[in-house]
Structures are given as structure tokens and as C-alpha cells.
Amino acid sequence: MSGSIPYIDMLEVINAVSNLMIAYGVFFFLYFSRRQEKREKVEFASRYIQQWNTPDFFHITSRLFSFENIEFLRALNPESYEDFRSNNKVGFDDIVTTLNFIEEMAQAIESNLADEHTLRKYFQRSLIETYLILENFIEITRMFRNHPTAYRSTERLMGQWAFSKSVAGGK
Fold it and tell me: Which of 60, 42, 43 is nearest to 102 (CA)?
């Protein structure tokens, strides 16, 4: 049997080729599963963008962010907070709805359920501005509710976004 490949060498070649095929399969499985995971995170993030753009949210933000309301919210103190909560249910609910929306989105990012880049690209500037307007409200709410961690995910996210470069194409 001169010139033929020994039987043992043939088994080693087959074994090596099998291992390469398995590695190739694992590589492509990981590649495509990561792409699928990214796609799912972007879809999850898109739901927040869609919700923000509903007519209901448009009316909430329109009511909330008039010039007079912005000035009122920035000047809010514990005494006027209680009066506001009692006498302006719609305005108070608009603020809580907005903050709860941002908190839910921040927690989805923290939990790695939503794609942060997608959300940051869309929301970075507007949510930082919203947070700055509502920051005083948040602090007083924490005090009144004796809940020092209320809206903490929002606070962390806004801190990260405020000190990072904009991803919204130079906006």
C-alpha cells in the first residue's frame, strides 16, 4: 500500500474537518442570534418612540410644556406641590405619566431589553430637557412619598445622556 494514506491519518482528517464544521456552525449560530437579539431590542425601543408619538402623549406634552407651566414647575416648592396635586389633577397626572414613561424606558435600557442607541438617537435632547424641567418635581415627590429612589433609573439615564456626545446627527 505504498502511496496510500494510513487509516489512522484519515480518521484524524475527518475528525479535524468535523470540528471545523461544528465551529463554523457555532460561529454562524452566534452571529445570527446576535443579529436577531439586536433586531428585537430595536423593535422594543421603537415601541417607546411610537408611544411618545401617540395623540394622547402629544396632548400631555402640549399641556405640560407651555411656558407658564415650565416656570411654575421650576419654582415648585413643597407647599405649592401639595396644592398643585390637590387642585390640578390633570396637570399632576400629566407629569406622573411622563415621568413613569421615562422611568419605564430607562429600566428597559438598564435591563438590556431595549436598544439604548435607538432611544438615545430619538430622545436624548428632549428627555434631558424634560428631566431638567421636572427635576424639582421629582425631588419633592421623593420627599412627600418618603421614597428616595423614586425615578432613580431616569436620573441615572439622564446623567449618562447629559454627559455623552449626541448621537442624533449633530443636533
Answer: 60
